[in-house]
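2024-03-11 09:14:02 DEBUG pipeline.ingest accepted 1 chain
2024-03-11 09:14:02 DEBUG pipeline.ingest length=215
2024-03-11 09:14:03 DEBUG pipeline.predict start
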Amino acid sequence: MRTHRMAILVVAGLLLAGPVAAQQFENVPEAKPAQAAAPPAGANIAVVDFQGVMVNTQEGRKAAEDLRAQFNPRNAELEKIRNEIRDLENQARAQERTLSDEARMQLVRQMEQKRKMATRMEQDLRDDFEAAQNEIISRLGEKVQRVIDQYAQEKGLNLVLSISQGSPIVFATRSVDITPEIIQLYDKNFPVQAATGATQQPARPAPPPRSNRPQ
């Protein structure tokens, strides 16, 4: 349905905007009820933190853990190369007056090679991280939308609005926030055998390290 696709695109845009998915999966805020006065009686309106549902379901937590496990080794390898570059730079400064011209040129070549290697590794890591994150957002987003549809039909709701970060909603009450109910229904519909307890904080995947890119 068109509404499903729009909801997923909105969430993806909010989570992935900026360099290296600045609003990354691990930075999505936990579900927090909005606070304000009650809506008119009979309005049958509810609000939901779409992003909060995605990261606080059992499946969302498991996806975050898997993403971290997948990319942490590559993050560590990239950081290792950067440390080697810093060591070479420190060596060049410390031995500036004692190195021969040939030794100095060799040191410069080593630094340039490692800088180019780090740049390629960082770009590949960023691309792969965003692709994996997009797949998770698309998969979870479609399921969240189906659960919201199911809940709305069962409760006779006429309208469900998003209160996720970046949404235009500025006024809502705890009584109309259905985020906890949607998380509970999602876990019931899509159980994860290896999931941890419902009260555990969501796992946070490590994004590619940020630094000034070598020129």
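2024-03-11 09:14:41 DEBUG pipeline.report Strands lie at 45-48, 159-162.
2024-03-11 09:14:41 DEBUG pipeline.predict end
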